């Protein structure tokens, strides 16, 4: 997410009405949801050790045409009044003859350090956003976030070359970013964006074919995502991408990317579900990557919050999106631009600088964590790889304001997330089977130690049967335990 001009609407998750009479069949129980083990992503992150501590798998970074090919190509041989070595200019056009006579000057060191860092940390993977244009394709010599149809052959060349050079180091190739956020990220027409997406996707598939010919024993598949729509995108614009040129784009993409920014976790989830309803007819309802989501703790956006609210927003947003089927969720983003106290008034007003979970400064050699960093790390530790059981836990006498989300893992590990939607404290009784019960507070600022020696304790007053009374507020609590030989699910009730 970057600066936006679209004000979002819709604050609460829509309710559903199953059937219209007492004679209708009851709705079937919702199915379990498997949470991918690699669900966690981070946008514009740069400290690999910190990312590993926080449980991040996917690291999103821009892979720009301008960075990969910073200067225009030159003519290999004299032609049409051009001498060998002359720089190509937009006025020259891009005919097949000219394209065949151009030498490109790729930046051979592009992203080398970044990708080496990813490769040196086996738990992390690179997610490349292929954006944006480059100044030298425009007559005025400045970028305008637009690639015209005439310039697509040059765009195609850089896509093919970049992918072929870096394919072993990049896990996913994403085409463009927030084309509906105009004019910040796109100034062309809808049709021109669709044409660019088609060009890039087909170019990547062409590279994939070439690589499998060169390496027949490897069965190489290059994963492509497209769209990267902001939550203000119109349904017509989204549908247009899938329907363009007889649906060719939907046959080349593996997934579609979406940024469901909104004011609350509930309205974020509504934006996600609305988008899901649009893309499901095209076969992408279960192929959505949320490649940006977050809340600034400063500046002026409709969803700006206080830092103290971050733990609540982080856990609720991740939980609601994941249980609705979001396969991957990237937080926007890791670092604030600087210490808030050191910022100028103009910087403090710029919400883009304050989306981080960590302050971009160190004290005694350690980064200063914002409230919310530990919440993210806890969720990443106790949810990915689990299965969400929507019909559990068993509830008795509880207000509908008490929200409960229960997750199981094949190895016997269990997680229960609880919160109270009301802005008040309310006690509930929990009965946890198994053993090794632990209570985790996302509002704590510091990370839990790897061996669980700091701040980890059984719920206060829990007895030998796993029964305890817990006070819930708007900020979620996370309970974990081992099922052991007891396969029963947890129970929660009024105290």
Compact overview of the structure:
By secondary structure, the chain is an alpha/beta fold. 25% of the residues lie in helices and 21% in strands.
Characterize the structure shown:
The chain is an alpha/beta fold. The protein is 25% helix and 21% strand. It starts with 32 loop residues before the first strand and ends with a strand.
Give the C-alpha Rg: 25 Å
Question: Percentage of helical residues?
Answer: 25-40%
Global shape: elongated
Name the structural class. Answer: alpha/beta
Quote the average pLDDT: 91
Widest sheet, order of strands: 2-3-6-7-8-9-10-11
Pick out the low-confidence regions. 2-23
Q: Roughly how many Å apart are the termini?
A: 43 Å
Question: Would you report the number of β strands?
Answer: 22
Keyword list:
elongated; six-stranded antiparallel sheet; 21% strand; 495 residues; alpha/beta; 22 strands
């Amino acid at each position: 997410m970057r600066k936006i001009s679209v004000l979002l609407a819709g604050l609460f998750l829509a309710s559903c009405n199953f059937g219209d009479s007492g004679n209708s069949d009851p709705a079937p129980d919702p199915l379990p949801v498997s949470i991918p083990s690699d669900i966690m992503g981070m946008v514009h992150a740069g400290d690999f050790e910190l990312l590993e501590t926080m449980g991040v798998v996917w690291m999103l970074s821009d892979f720009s045409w301008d960075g990969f090919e910073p200067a225009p190509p030159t003519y290999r041989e004299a032609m049409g009044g051009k001498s060998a070595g002359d720089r190509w200019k937009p006025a020259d056009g891009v005919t097949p003859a000219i394209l065949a006579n151009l030498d490109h000057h790729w930046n051979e060191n592009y992203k080398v350090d970044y990708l080496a860092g990813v490769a040196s940390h086996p738990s992390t993977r690179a997610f490349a956003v292929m954006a944006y244009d480059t100044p030298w394709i425009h007559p005025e010599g400045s970028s305008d976030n637009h690639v015209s149809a005439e310039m697509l052959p040059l765009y195609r060349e850089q896509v093919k070359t970049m992918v072929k050079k870096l394919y072993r180091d990049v896990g996913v190739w994403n085409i463009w970013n927030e084309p509906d956020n105009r004019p910040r990220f796109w100034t062309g027409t809808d049709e021109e964006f669709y044409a660019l997406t088609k060009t890039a996707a087909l170019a990547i598939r062409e590279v994939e074919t070439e690589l499998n010919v060169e390496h027949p024993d490897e069965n190489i598949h290059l994963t492509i995502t497209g769209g990267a729509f902001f939550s203000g995108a119109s349904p017509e614009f989204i549908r247009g991408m899938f329907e363009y040129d007889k649906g060719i784009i939907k046959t080349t993409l593996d997934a579609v990317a979406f940024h469901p920014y909104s004011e609350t976790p509930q309205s974020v989830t509504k934006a996600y579900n609305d988008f899901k309803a649009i893309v499901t007819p095209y076969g992408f309802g279960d192929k959505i990557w949320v490649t940006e989501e977050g809340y600034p703790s400063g500046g002026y956006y409709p969803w700006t919050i206080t830092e103290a609210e971050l733990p609540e927003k982080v856990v609720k947003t991740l939980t609601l999106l994941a249980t609705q089927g979001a396969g991957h969720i990237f937080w926007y983003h890791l670092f604030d631009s600087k210490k808030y106290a050191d910022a100028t008034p103009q910087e403090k007003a710029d919400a883009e600088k304050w989306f981080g979970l960590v302050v971009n400064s160190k004290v005694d050699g350690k980064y200063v964590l914002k409230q919310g960093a530990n919440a993210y790390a806890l969720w990443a530790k106790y949810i990915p790889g689990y299965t969400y059981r929507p019909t559990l836990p068993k509830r008795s006498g509880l207000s509908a304001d008490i929200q409960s989300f229960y997750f199981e893992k094949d190895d016997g590990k269990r997680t229960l997330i609880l919160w109270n939607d009301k802005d008040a404290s309310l006690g509930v009784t929990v009965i946890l089977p198994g053993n090794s019960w632990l209570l985790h507070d996302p509002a704590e600022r510091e990370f839990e130690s790897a061996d669980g020696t700091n701040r980890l304790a059984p719920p206060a007053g829990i007895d030998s049967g796993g029964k305890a009374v817990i006070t819930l507020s708007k900020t979620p609590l996370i309970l974990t335990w081992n099922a052991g030989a007891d396969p029963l699910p947890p129970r929660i009730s009024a105290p």
